Amino acid sequence: MSYFTLKKTRVVLALLFFSFTFFSFIDIYELLPERITSSILFLQFVPSILKFAQAVSLATIGFIVVILLTVVFGRIYCSAICPLGILQDVFTYIARKRSKKKVFLKFKKAYPLVRYSLLVLAVVSFLAGISLVVNLLDPYSNAGRIFTYTVKPLVVWANNGVAGLLQGQRIYTLHLIETVRAPWAIILYVFLFFVFIAYLSYKRGRLFCNLICPVGTLLGLISKKALFKVRISSDKCTKCNKCSSVCKSECIDLKSYQIDYSRCVACYDCLPVCNDDAIKYAVSKSDTNKMKPLQGEKKLDRRGAIATLLAITASSTILAQHGDGHGISQEGGELGSLPPLKLSLREHPVTPPGSKNLARFNSLCTACGLCISACPTNVLQPSITEYGLIGFMQPQMDYANAGFCNFDCTRCGDICPTGAIMPLPMEEKQLTQLGKAVFVKGNCVVYRDGTDCGACSEHCPTKAVTMVPYRDGLVIPEVNQDLCIGCGACEHPCPVDYPHKAIYVDSNTEHVMAQKPLEVESEHNALEEDFPF
Amino acid sequence: MQRRDFLRTGVGLGLLTGIGPFFGGLDPLTAGNAVTKTDLVAVRGGEPEVMFDKAMEALGGMGKFVAKGQSVLVKPNIGWDAGPERAANTNPGLVGHIVKRCLEAGASEVNVFDNTCNKWDRCYSNSEIEKNVKEAGGKMVPGNTESYYKEVNIGKGKSLKSAKVHELVQRSDVFINVPVLKHHASTKLSLGMKNLMGIVWDRKFFHSNDLHQCIADITLHRKPDLTIIDGYNMMTKNGPRGVSTADVVNLKALIASTDIVATDAAAAKMFGIEPEEVGYINIAHDMGIGNKNLSELNIHRIKI
């Protein structure tokens, strides 16, 4: 295979991976089945490690495949699979097209102190159960958040514009998509990160990947020993700088004819540009492999690399107990002659079905935003500090403002790449109790206004909320918590405004199984007479 | 022929052709149920499509309601993400059949929508209403965002003075209301008038401002030209969503009338309760929206 073809193949692969990953996040018409999305995200490094720790199976060994690929070919994860890496290449590509400089990029020294410190920080905080650091550093999750919070709203906006025009002509092929805007703090954070990474890649190629990204640093340790490597023949090289000028990782040092393999992302951009046949991508031979470590590059041996890897893998199983949110208790205000409305606030946020328990969820979710993008009812919304700082941007069930969980839906669990939300069979999902409905009679329309309401009971899929006789022929809600699955179908439609809902879901920090709804055959007698009038 | 006879015949014929149309032509004479007007039709014992056709025949035919070139809105209950066997939504076969009959009568377009309780696109597809409507040549129109709903004033409304109503209700020439007969936790029964909660955007207002009064008030905006209550499968408990098929009995009934209060009263009887037990039926009757006293109506009963 010629180097030109090799590079083209890498670019095509990268575009394919990127397109499918990107589309998974902006799939507003739910066109991509969950299993396709899962297959595409199978190779995402950090999510795969997390999922592997939950369930060892062929479906969770993506990170091992990536490690093996790295052992053979170098960091092709970074250049062909990582959505954030490929996104950065777009900006680098634009910069290069716009650049009038003959030498676009040149060799730069590595920043080992920063790199390895961040890697150690990521691993240690992981071990300590503080997922936040990993969430903020993981490239896949960062890309996911860019797609979810900055791109998807634009896609929805464009769709609604076109759909509106078509519907003016009575064409309903496209429909208007309802969205719930994420909190400004999150949009702002993600947007600033996007601008930061766009700027960085525009100016310095893959600097983020070789300075900040812990996955890049970790794979860099492995890629130093990769079987296939790019190498420069000192006999043939004319030091024309063509290769180093296109090197996004700024890792080709022509002074010493050396390449910093810890930073090389195996993009193959350097290979086809050489006119002197001086650059090769081939199986390394031990004799030619002897090179002194690059200046400033701390030598980390194989054991070190393996230890780091093991630490990361282990960390996901050692889940620290944390994320105890914050208790909220405030006094209700005075309102009219009736007793004041009570505040109905849950102590902890409700976590999605399949997340099993709060602490587990907080430590496994990388806040990539995929479930939030995919949730058909928009009930999954990113949190700011509801979980405590530890769960920044992790999803919660926002019954009060956004929606409620669709009874016959398991999409979030089916799609979650980290296993923070485990896939549940439909029957199990429909019995998984995320929390329990609590009825606050003092806030209820029936009690306060003396009129019928029953919106909560209407929507309840298990009839945990029923209407029982009250006074003057009225009926009032009654909750059987044994049947309740905490889906929020009662809280969301309750006409009393948040935070004084007359019924709300108090979260289970540990999900349990609810009782199966009773299926009593209807005792309704078929009418004796055909027409009772 | 004598001149006298000729004149007599001529005058007679002239009167017949000239005055005849004022009495509704010859149709009522040939419709079997002569002279008196049918206020309400109740059909038992057939498949939904057959019962509908019988009912329409008794009411004077589809052409009486849909004229050539008119746009029609068929408003079923598609509130829930549940299959047809659960009877939480209107029977999909019936909805499709009504769409077909409207188009046969010459309707220029037949649109179908509901402001659903569960996620709208799942309701449309899992109820199988979408499939049946499209096969019949009708259009499924979304109702999932506020932009479809336009503010209207309800001058005579008591609790509901204004509401945002789906634009289809406002612009369609013919409005056919097709609810399903089912149990309802708070209003006892979901019927014709209750089904009209699906034409408004903000249902929370109804729930917090005297639900029964608001249900009666919304019918004042636009009374359906025809209400067909689907009682083929009837949810007898756990309504309006239902839990399983154990809640459902196969009643095989259909009620049709231009009087939405009368259909609701008759359906209540079919369910096994008195119309007076349902708050909004009483309110609507007292407001003069329709007649809940079935004994005062000319009812056509058809047993298949």
Features:
heterodimer, A: 533 residues, mainly alpha, Alpha-Beta Plaits, 2 domains, two-stranded antiparallel sheet, 10 strands, 41% helix, 9% strand, B: 304 residues, alpha/beta, 10-stranded mixed sheet
Description:
The complex is a heterodimer of chains A (533) and B (304). Chain A has 533 residues and is mainly α. Chain A has 2 domains: 3-313, no CATH class; 358-513, 2-Layer Sandwich (Alpha-Beta Plaits), CATH 3.30.70.20. Chain A is built from 21 helices and 10 strands. Chain A has helices at 3-25, 34-41, 45-54, 62-73, 76-81, 83-98, 112-127, 131-137, 139-168, 184-204, 207-211, 214-223, 242-246, 286-289, 302-315, 358-364, 370-374, 411-415, 426-429, 445-449, 455-459; strands spanning 228-232, 252-253, 258-259, 279-283, 380-382, 395-397, 432-439, 465-469, 475-479, 503-513. In chain A, the strands form 5 sheets. Chain A has a two-stranded antiparallel sheet with strand order 1-4. In chain A, helix 7 packs across helix 12 (214-223) and helix 9 crosses helix 10 (184-204). Chain B is α/β, with parallel strands linked by helices and 304 residues long. Chain B folds into 2 domains: 1-30; 33-303, Rossmann fold. Chain B has helices at residues 3-19, 27-30, 48-58, 92-104, 120-126, 129-136, 167-171, 192-195, 203-208, 211-218, 260-271, 279-286, and strands at residues 40-44, 71-76, 109-112, 139-140, 149-153, 162-166, 174-178, 180-184, 188-190, 226-235, 248-257, 299-303. In chain B, strands 1, 2, 3, 4, 7, 8, 9, 10, 11 and 12 form a 10-stranded mixed β-sheet that branches. A two-stranded antiparallel sheet of chain B has the order 5-6. In chain B, helix 4 links the parallel strand 2 and strand 3 (109-112). In chain B, helix 4 runs parallel beside helix 6 (129-136). The longest helix of chain B has 17 residues, at 3-19. Residues 14-18 and 20-35 of chain B have low confidence and may be disordered. At the A-B interface, helix 21 of A face helix 5, strand 4, helix 9, helix 10 and strand 11 of B.
